[in-house]
Amino acid sequence: MSTLKKDPLHPSQEESQPQIELNLQGKENEKENQNAEQDESKKESHSNHRPSRRSDKSLETRQSEKLEELGQERILIASPVRQTTPVLREFLDSLHALERTTVKTDYLFVDDNVEEAASNILHEFVLQHEGTVIQADEHGSGSPDNKGVYSKDEGGHYWQDEQIWRVAGLKNRILQYARDNHYDGVFLIDSDLVLHPRTLEQLVSNGKDIVSNIFWTRWQPDAREMPQVWLQDEYALYRRGGKTLDGTEAEDEGTQTTAFLSQLRIPGCYEVGGLGACTLIRKNVLAAGVSYDQIPNVSFWGEDRHFCIRAQALGFRLFVDTHFPAYHIYRLSELPGVSAFNRRARRGEETISITLCMIVKNEEASLARCLDSVNGIADEIVIVDTGSTDRTRQIASRYTDRIVDFEWVDDFAAARNYAFDQAKSEYILWLDADDVFEPEDRAKLIALKRSLDPDVDSVTMDYNLSFTADGKVAYNLRRNRLVRRDRQFRWIGAVHEYLAVAGNLLHSDIAVTHKKDKEYTDRNLRIYRKREQAGEEFGPRDLYYFGNELKDHGQHEDAVKYYEKFLDTGLGWVEDQIAACQKIADCEAALERPEQEVTALFRSFAYDLPRAEICCRLGGYFADREDYRKALFWYEQATRAVRPDDPMVVLNEAAWTWMPHLQLCVCYDRMGNRAKAREHNDIALAYHPTHPSMLYNDRYFKDLEKDNVLENA
Fold first, then answer.
1. Are residues 16 and 111 in contact, defined by beta-carbon separation less than 8 angstroms?
2. Hey, what CATH class is 610-713 in?
3. 488: left (phi over 0), alpha (psi -120 to 50) or beta
4. Which element (helix H / strand E) includes 280?
5. Pairing of strands 210-217, 226-227
6. 649 CB burial (10 A radius; 0-12, 13-18, 19+)
C-alpha cells in the first residue's frame, strides 16, 4: 500500500515510466552516419575487384576520438520531465544559454507531461536546437494515462513511494543510454531549475567523478533556505562521530550545521555525503554500474540517497560546487524571481560593490571586532570620527585610509548623512562599532553580494539586541541595512535617527548582532533637554523617543506626559503608538497607579488587533491579583492573537509562543485543574525544551502522577 509523503528534499519534477523506450540520435550524428554510409557505398562501387573494408570502430567511438582531438568532452544533458508550462520554459531557456567552450552536448528528455502545452514546447525546443532529437516510445509501459500520483502546491511537493521508484527506473534508463552511446558524462537535471550560463563548464572543470551544482530551497513556505546536499544519513547537515567539518572545533550538531551551511555560501567545491537533482556523473562512474535502484536493506526515502550510498560503496566521492547556485522554482510563487536571477547572471562574475559607512567616537574596544566581521564584504570602508581621544583612529587605519573628521553637533542624522556622502560604491552598508556579523550571517551576506538583484533599493536585516542564557535571540528588530547609493536615501532625526527608504525592498534572513560593551549614558536625554530648553517644537517621532529617554532614566511622570503628547497627535507609526501605550503602563506601574496601568494597556486596542504582548501583560495583571478567571481569559487570547504582516514589526517571540502557555499552566494549577495545567506546560515545553520553569513543572506533574494525585485532580 502506498503512502503519501511530503518531500523535504526531492526534486520537483515527476518523471516518466521505466518501461519507456528511449531513442536519441543527434541530427549531427544522423548526418555523419548518412555521410559515412554514402562514403562506404562509394568505396564499394569503385572497388568491385576487392572486398569492401568497413571500419571496426563504431560511429560513437569515431566521434569521441574526433572530439578528443578537439579537446572537447561529450556530455549528455538529460532530464525526465513532467512540468508546468511556464516553469518548463524557464528551464529550457537556461539550458539553451549554457556555455559550451570545452564540451559538446546532446539532449535527452523524456516527455511525461500532463499538460499538452508543456509537451509542445519541449518538442519545439528539440526541433529548434540542432543536434537534438527526442522520442519517448511507450511500448510495454501500460496505459499512457497511468503516470503515477504526484502533486505539488505552495506548501510543498507530495510523492507516493511507487512513483519514486518509477523515477529511479527512468533515471537508470538515462544512465544506460549514456553508457551505450559512450558519453564522457551525463548531466542529470530536474526541470524546475534555472541554471547560470557557466554551470556546466564549471562542473566539468572540477574533474570530479560526481559533482552537483548547489541550489537552495525553502522546503516549507516559512522555513529558511536549505541546500539539496547533506553530510550523512537522509539529511544530516553534520557528522555523527568521526571527523568534524574542516575548521569546526566544536563537535555539537548545531555548531557543525552552522559551519556547513556557511561553507556552502562561499564559492568552492566541497565534499558531501549526499546530493542530487543537478548532478554531473562521469563515464567511469557509469562504467562501474552505479544506479538509482533501491537498496533492499536501506530504508532511506528517495532514489537520490540510494544512488549516493551505492556510489560511495563503489569508491566514488561526492562533491558539491557552489560557484554558480541554480535558481529553484519549487513553487509557482517563486517564478517571478527568475527574471532577477537572469539579470544577475548576465552581470557575469561582477558583484555589487559595497561601502561600509560608520560613525565612531572612542571605540577602541570594539572597532576591530566589527571591521574583522566585514572581511570579504566591504569594498570600501568610510570611518567618520566625531571626536575620538583614544586609539580609534589608529585601529581604523589598519582597515582603511578613508578616515574623515566630523565636528559633533548633537545630531546623529547629520553625522550619518555625512558618512553616506563619502561613499563611492554601488551600495552602502552601515554599522555601529559594537555591531558584528556572526560567521553564518557573514557567509550569507557574501552570497547575497554575489546574487543581489541590482533593482533592489534596500535590504533589511534583523538586528539581534539580546539573547537568552542558552544563546537564543531574546529581542530583535529589523533595519534597512544595505541601500543603493544612487537612491540618495537620507537619515532623519537628531536622536534615534532612522533611514528613510522607499522602493524595492528585500527582506533578508541575514542578521547583525549587537554586542554592547559600553555603559548607557544620558547623552541622548541631554540632547533632548537642550532642545526642549531652546523652545523647539517636537514632532511625533521626537515626542515618542523623548518619552523613551525619560522612562529609561526613571523620570516616569515626565515620560507619561510626552507619551500622551505623542498619542494625542494621532500621527506616527502604529507600532510606536502601541508601544507608547505599553510604556505608559510601565510608568504607571512604577508610580504604583494600577488603574492607570490597566487603562493604558486597554488603550492599545484602539490602534490594532490585540497583540500577544498586551494580552500576556493583562493576564499577568489579573494573576497578580489572584483573579485567575480573568487571567485565563487574557492568556488564552494571547495564544490566539494574529501576528501582524509587516516584517518590520518588533515582536516579543516569547509572548507569541511559550509564555502564555506557561502562565496558563500556573493559573490552571492554582484553580485545581492540573490536567489542563499539564497540557499547557507540555505545549510550552515544545516551544522551549530547556526552560527551567517548564522543566521544573514537568517534574512536578510526574511526581503527582506517581502519587495518583494528577488522575484525581
1. yes
2. mainly alpha
3. left
4. strand 278-282
5. antiparallel
6. middle
Confidence of residue 82 (pLDDT cuts 50, 70, 90): confident
Q: Which amino acid is at 464?
A: N
User: Please, are residues 261 and 230 in contact by the beta-carbon 8 Å criterion?
Assistant: no
Going from N- to C-terminal start, the domains of the chain cover 4-46+57-229+273-344, 351-514, 522-608, 610-713
Buried b / exposed e along 554-573 (16+ C-beta atoms within 10 A): ebbeebbbbbebbbeeeebe
Give the number of residues written for the chain: 713
> By the 8 A CB rule, do 245 and 425 touch?
no
What are the cell numbers at 165?
521508484
Top-level class of domain 351-514: alpha beta
Q: What is the DSSP string of 650-677?
A: ---HHHHTTHHHHHHHHHHHHTT-HHHH
Predicted confidence band of residue 20 (pLDDT cuts 50, 70, 90)? very low
3-state SS, 372-394, equals HCCCCCCCEEEEEECCCCCCHHH
Q: What is the Cα–Cα distance from 257 to 252, expressed in whole angstroms?
A: 9
* Alpha carbon distance 644, 642 (integer Å): 6
Asked whether the domain spanning 522-608 has the same topology as the one spanning 4-46+57-229+273-344, the reply is no
Report, at the CATH architecture level, how domain 4-46+57-229+273-344 is classified. Alpha-Beta Complex (3.90)
Per the structure block, which three cell numbers stand in for 538? 517636537
**pLDDT, tens digit, for every residue of 342-393?**
887 776 656 789 999 999 999 999 999 999 999 889 999 999 999 999 999 9
Structure confidence by residue, pLDDT tens digits, 612-654: 999 999 999 999 999 999 999 999 999 999 999 888 898 999 9
* 492, β-bridge pairs: 498
| Residue 153 near residue 7, CB atoms below 8 Å | no
Q: What fold is seen in the domain 522-608?
A: 1.25.40
